[in-house]
């Protein structure tokens, strides 16, 4: 059996520590890493649901959408210092990106 190839996403310092573990510890580490990944994904999802309200708009081309904002982006409302702002928001791989659009109330 050949030694597994280290994925690029895993830093060498973590691989060095893993290489010093026995098979029982590696199985425990793998199970923990899977649970930790699920926890972090659920935490991010919960934070997004708490902090932001998705504004459902009619499906049409937004003439104000900047060129660097993809068409799949939705409009969200973020509250900062008691002021509400519209932001474009979209997923880029595993990351969520956003870009300022406008204040919710024109006077803000």
TrEMBL record:
Region (Disordered): 48-72
Taxonomic placement: Archaea, Methanobacteriati, Methanobacteriota, Stenosarchaea group, Halobacteria
Protein name: DUF6788 domain-containing protein
Highest rank taxon of the organism: Archaea
Family annotation (InterPro entries): DUF6788
Domain DUF6788: 71-106
Biased composition (Basic and acidic residues): 56-70
């Amino acid at each position: 059996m050949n030694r597994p190839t280290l994925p690029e996403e895993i830093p060498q310092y973590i691989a060095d520590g893993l290489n010093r573990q026995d098979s029982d510890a590696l199985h425990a580490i793998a199970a923990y890493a899977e649970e930790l990944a699920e926890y972090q994904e659920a935490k991010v999802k919960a934070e997004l649901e708490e902090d932001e309200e998705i504004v459902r708009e009619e499906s049409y081309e937004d003439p104000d959408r900047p060129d660097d904002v993809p068409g799949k982006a939705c409009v969200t409302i973020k509250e900062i210092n008691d002021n509400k702002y519209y932001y474009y928001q979209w997923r880029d791989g595993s990351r969520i990106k956003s870009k300022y659009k406008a204040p919710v109330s024109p006077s803000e």
